[in-house]
Each structure stands twice: as C-alpha cells, then as structure tokens.
Specification:
With 126 residues, this protein is α+β, with helices and mostly antiparallel strands. The protein is 25% helix and 43% strand. A hairpin with a 4-residue loop joins strand 7 and strand 8.
Amino acid sequence: MSVFTLTKTRFRDGLWEGLLVRQQQGAEQMPEIVASFEDRPIHGVTLTDTAEPGRWVVEVPVPVKALGDGVSTVLIRDAREECVLASFTLVAGEALAEDIRAEVSLLRAELDLLKRAFRKHCRDTG
C-alpha cells in the first residue's frame, strides 16, 4: 500500500490531471509516479509541487496509441511501492457504437415489457 493517494481533478485536451497527496506526515520521500499503457511506459508524465507541502499535481498525457476502436486503460502507479494509484479508461470507435445500440435495444425491450404489464394492471384493477 502506498503512502500516497491520487485523485483525478480533470481530464481534457488529452491530458489527465490529478492531485497526489502524501498520507503519512512523517514520510518525507519524494513520490516516483509512472504511467503505462499496455505494459509500456508513457513519456511526458509530470509531477509539479503545489503551495502545500505533501501535495503535487500529476499530469499524464494520453498516448496516441491508446486512441482507436475498442477499450484502452492507462495505469498510474507509485513506482517505489509498485502499487496502482489510479487508472483511466478510454472507449471509442465502432465497438462503442455497437455496445450502445445493444444497450438501447435492451432498454426498449424492457420498457415495452413494463408498458404491457402496467396496461394489464390498469385493465384488471379498473
């Protein structure tokens, strides 16, 4: 378990940002944050000091290879403790469109079932 927690603050313009906080006040080690996609390191990860001690801003650029059809996950880890602090998932392309169409179709079928049951209930009790 890491002495740090990482909380997402925003994700826009191809840049994931989070706030890294040291949980143990006595621990003075500098964080070593790494991000990876498909077990390959992501270059350009930055760690910036804030005005408060024990807090840093983490920025992880979205790798171009993560953009495409399907689902991609980026892991952000504490390299010293070898534990995952955060992750984010990207879903895009045709796979997403098919999933949404299937989900909408299922919702329509369930709504039709509920409408029939409600109409039957109204006929039987009215």
